[in-house]
Amino acid sequence: MKTVTTEEFNLKLLQGFQVIDVRAPIEFAQGALPNSVNIPLLDDQERALVGTCYKKSGREKALELGHQIVSGVNKAEKLQKWKSFYENHPHSILTCFRGGLRSQSVQTFLAEVGIEIPRIEFGYKEIRQFYLNEIEAYCKNDQLKILTGSTGSGKTKLLKRVREFYPVIDLEELAQHRGSAFGAMKNPQPAQASFENYLAYEILKYKAQNLKADILFEDESRLIGSLHLQEAFFNKLRATSVIKINVDLAERIENILLEDIQRRVENLEQRMGIK
Fold first, then answer.
1. Average pLDDT over every residue of 153-164
2. Whose CA is closest to 138, among 223, 229, 226?
3. What's the DSSP call for residue 219?
4. Catalytic residue list
5. Which residues pair with 93 in a beta bridge?
6. Is there a contact between 102 and 42 (Cβ–Cβ < 8 Å)?
């Protein structure tokens, strides 16, 4: 069965490949890769049963139970989900936690219906460490730019305009939170690990373009909602000189008011189930 290395995976992800993550939902919620969807081999309850069996009776019995669970109607329903996603996203890659039994099993099931799909060689765990290392290396070896200004000065709006022609990473957008002044966005915040994975992926996207310009970030505190910036990255932000926006008080008040109205509208839409 075909596998892809960490380096190959990163290249394919930058080319637009999708990731089919077959870990249990509870694992996926704790940290996910960019461009990934969770279509598990075992759901949370099934995973717990297999895990308990492993502790009590060993690996062979746990494998036997896993095969019993993913069989018959259960297997057919899951196979249809993987098959359907692949048909809509033919450039896809499989992963589980370590690139082992779960993703190999799904590879085999799909091969039985004529679908050949690669899996990440060492799974989510390897890519996760690769992303953490990439952020550390970026903080050590690269320069960046910081946009700062008082609350209501329109930093986020400016970032959105600037990124049409200049490399920008919006940390609040990645974190799905507007900071202490404006609070949560419409979507819930990702897991801490997911946030860091997304940040590394965005950095790698710009590095792959071999741009000469330094990436522009908005000045942030250590915490963005319930998420935090890695120590090395936060220290890098604090050690970097800033570009400051100066806006008069009246305009800042207007911006804050408009932002507050937008936030209230989004909260109302969310309560009413309006997307």
1. 84
2. 229
3. -
4. 96
5. 19
6. yes
